Amino acid sequence: MQSQKFRLFTPGPLNTSAQVRQAAGRDLGSRSPVAIHLSARLREDIVDIAGCDASWSAVPLSGSGTFAVEAMLCSLPAADDHLLIIENGVYSARMVDICRIHAIPHSVLTLPPHQGFDLAQVELALKQTPLVTHIAAVHFETALGVINDIDGLTQLANRYGCQLLIDAISTFGVLPLDYSAPSLSAVALSANKCLHGLPGIAFVLVRKAVLATHVAPRTLSLDLRAQANALDGNGQWRFTPPLQIMLALKQAIDEYRQQGGRRARHRAYSQRMAHLLDGMARLGFTPIIQPQFCAPLIVTLAPNPGIQCEIDKLNDFLFQRGLVIYPTKHWAVNSFRIGVMGELDIQDIDDLLTAFAEFTAQAAPGTLQPNPLSLRPAL
Ligand SMILES: *Cc1c(COP(=O)(O)O)cnc(C)c1O
User: Fold this and answer.
1) Prediction pTM value
2) 328 CB less than 6 Å from ligand 1?
3) Is-cis flag, bond preceding 182, omega within 30?
4) Is residue 142 in contact with ligand 1, taking CB distance under 6 Å?
């Protein structure tokens, strides 16, 4: 089978470097000193990238990001605790599903999905639900591309004596959190978002003091305490570790550091996003989320009035060229998402813009379209 190169402008999986993929091409025994050292080193690296101190523990799990969110929600609240889930998008709605399935006592504060949550509404909910011990929320709702004010939420939670459980899967490694805030208890992240590792390993950063409390397990394989105890004890995972994926993550983290770490990656994403938005504006597409709720990770765009653009046809047109974007159906607006995370560069954005220009030109023959070549930056 001919293997085609895909460029993924999606919320994940994301493009990885050739060296990251190559690093996975090796067998290791899980009890070998190399494997034990690799687990320990990755746990330290995650703490280091977060910028938190030794009062935090990075607990790894096999699986995608959702496994980490489920592990966090299942493992940390005790039977008599009560969660408030701030639901303003697909990923926080998933937290509600997890709590329902595991019968974790919770309340849901549903807020509009097209903007970051309103802290005044959260405070009102806390006043109305005095039993709340934990608040669960998502840093960046990747489905529409909406950033939530987690630093503001930590301050509110500090005042109300609540613990925060945060899904930072789409921001970890690029947008920071304040790990010194006493209310922040746990943060879920995964290898294949801004860290550019392969999918298959996820982590929950947890305060060691929280791990030390006793909670009756609701799950075997996703129990963070048991996983942390095993790793802190003999250095081994309880079940088969995803060793090839771990080797790839080590390489991805080395590259992240070589490239300048969080600030450099943030700068690169910001440049890609600015270039993308500039080109898309010239082709007649506008972000549907207000700029103050956007982040340089993924953006939802819709065609301006008068621009011919059938999203399904657009999708097919781009896919045939190895360019992958994701449709979003929202408020009856015909819209789609374009992400700039992963191993992409400005040339990839230009190729996408050129394909968009071709598509809109053939969709509306006779109308004047920008010359695709003019989209390339002058040398
Ligand atoms: C990608 C993502 C997840 C995890 O999704 P998986 O499909 O399990 O990898 C969770 N939350 C957010 C905000 C995400 O962007």
Assistant:
1) 0.94
2) no
3) no
4) yes
